[in-house]
Specification:
alpha/beta, globular
């Protein structure tokens, strides 16, 4: 009920101004186009896809190990059983040469230069032979650093939606069923 009321208030507010909204995936585009009648909605790529990551991308023969970047917060949708499958497969192919990390900042200490947080991630991801992630920006950072990546879908449509912008990249693969992880 609260969500519906908030949506109605937002619709009234947005319609009282001349507003243009930019969204990065089709499901949000369709939702906003339907709910916000007099608002101009545009579908655009996630802005992180504009980062030139080639400077962080090592040559294939210089790359080593796996970067495992999975949600570990309240929005995690992987069950412990599925997480075990991912960890077992990862160890099967990479042994102990697995680095775990995250794209999310778990603090509110934000300043104007957020790239100083992103840059070390790009440096790490660009040195890995492969990445496995269920994070939207994990997928994007793999794409811009030319890092082979298996993207595991979650309940949220945003990962699958943004994948549509990069699905032409042969080194980024979306996996909806862990049976296809190999």
């Amino acid at each position: 009920q609260f969500g519906r009321e908030l949506l109605e208030q937002s619709c009234k507010l947005y319609q009282s101004k001349k507003i243009q909204v930019f969204v990065r995936e089709k499901s949000s585009f369709e939702f906003l186009s339907e709910e916000f009648q007099n608002v101009e909605v545009s579908l655009v790529p996630d802005i992180a896809l504009m980062i030139d990551g080639t400077g962080y991308s090592k040559a294939v023969e210089e790359r080593d190990g796996l970067f495992l970047c999975l949600r570990n917060d309240s929005e995690r949708t992987l069950t412990n059983e599925k997480l075990d499958i991912i960890l077992t497969k990862s160890e099967q192919y990479f042994g102990s040469n697995i680095t775990e990390g995250d794209t999310h900042r778990y603090n509110d200490d934000v300043d104007d230069d957020t790239f100083k947080y992103v840059e070390p991630l790009l440096e790490t991801i660009g040195t890995k032979r492969m990445m496995v992630t269920d994070r939207l920006h994990g997928m994007i950072f793999a794409a811009i650093t030319n890092t082979p990546c298996i993207v595991i879908t979650s309940k949220s449509p945003k990962v699958k939606g943004v994948y549509q912008w990069i699905k032409h990249l042969p080194y980024i693969k979306l996996v909806e069923d862990l049976e296809d992880l190999d």
